[in-house]
Design brief:
It is built from five helices and five strands; from the N terminus they run αββαβαββαα. By secondary structure, it is α+β, with helices and mostly antiparallel strands. The protein has one domain: Trna Endonuclease, Chain: A, domain 1, CATH 3.40.1350. Strand 3, helix 3 and strand 4 form a beta-alpha-beta unit. The N and C termini lie far apart (about 40 Å).
């Protein structure tokens, strides 16, 4: 695949994730943008208001094959104090999300207990992670 075609696939996935967050979480479109392809750092640049609703660092990978572990390592390296996630997509398949299993189960437990929203739990995890690092 040509480099330009691969970058175009990646850009489409980033934009799809951005649109999903805007529509489902009522994030203002100006508070989140897709980073230009080839730039270092998180794939989505978010303003503070967007982070309050979605405290995750997104690495988007739109590939037919790839190393999930390397993608997650890249997400961790770019996450700063946010919880890293990888959005994976390949042709004719639904996008999937890779997240730390303990974070996922903790979020579900908190939702079931009704004590905190999943965004509060993810934010708490990110703060603990940055202290531990």
């Amino acid at each position: 695949m040509l480099t330009s075609s691969a970058k175009s696939k990646g850009r489409r996935l980033q934009q799809w994730v951005r649109t999903l967050l805007v529509e489902k979480l009522d994030i203002h479109p100006e508070d989140i943008e897709s980073r230009p392809m080839g730039s270092s750092g998180e794939d989505l640049i978010m303003a503070r208001a967007a982070r309050e609703k979605f405290p995750f660092s997104v690495e988007a990978k739109n590939q037919e094959s790839g190393n999930v572990w390397k993608a997650y390592e890249q997400a961790q390296a770019n996450a700063k104090t946010y919880t890293p996630i990888v959005v994976l997509k390949k042709n004719r398949e639904k996008p999937l999300v890779v997240i730390d299993a303990e974070v996922f189960v903790d979020m579900v437990a908190e939702i079931n207990e009704g004590n905190k929203s999943y965004t509060e739990k993810a934010r708490d995890y990110a703060q603990v992670r940055s202290i531990d690092d």
